[in-house]
Write a structure and sequence with these properties.
Helix content is 11%, strand content 47%. With 157 residues, it is mainly β. The strands form three sheets. Strands 1, 4, 7, 8, 9 and 12 form a six-stranded antiparallel β-sheet that branches.
Length: 157
């Protein structure tokens, strides 16, 4: 009886795992930043590898920082270059903490992740390049651990 229950549980788990698989046009990538800080001229590049030639959806930018990050916000410049479409540039002000210094992001221990939607990019083409750099008034921005972009397609499989 226990063996049969184990087989049923494994089958149920594999069905759930298959139902939760990402859509073919979803994209997500994170870049690690140097522990010594994010240098002002250091631009992070993300090349989209979506399955279709074009997809509609939602683009978000996520930042992972530690508890020692000295500011309540983070200014970013995001540029999308596409051979099919025009170049789009936007500045984002990520509000990471409230006026009392409490972090908005989710996390545990000393690391937090905060995400925000990029409103003017709702369509991506295969091979688009998304570049992100910080535009804080510092040569080197401390305590930012990772930065990533995620595109969630609104199209069905």
């Amino acid at each position: 009886m226990n063996k049969l229950l184990g087989v049923y549980m494994a089958l149920l788990f594999s069905i759930c795992l298959g139902a939760c698989s990402p859509r073919q046009n979803d994209y997500s990538k994170f870049c690690n930043l140097s522990p010594s800080g994010w240098i002002y001229d250091d631009t992070l590049l993300f090349v989209t590898d979506i399955a279709d030639s074009v997809a509609s959806g939602t683009l978000t930018v996520a930042v992972r920082h530690n508890n020692n990050y000295p500011y309540s916000n983070l200014w970013l410049e995001l540029t999308r270059r596409s051979g099919v479409d025009k170049t789009t540039r936007d500045t984002l002000n990520l509000q990471l903490a409230d006026i009392y210094g409490r972090w908005y992001g989710n996390g545990f221990g000393a690391s937090y992740q905060f995400s925000d939607t990029v409103n003017n990019i709702t369509r991506l083409f295969r091979g688009d390049t998304i570049s992100v750099r910080h535009i804080m008034r510092l040569d080197t921005l401390p305590d930012v651990e990772q930065l990533g972009v995620t595109f969630v397609s609104t199209e069905s499989k």
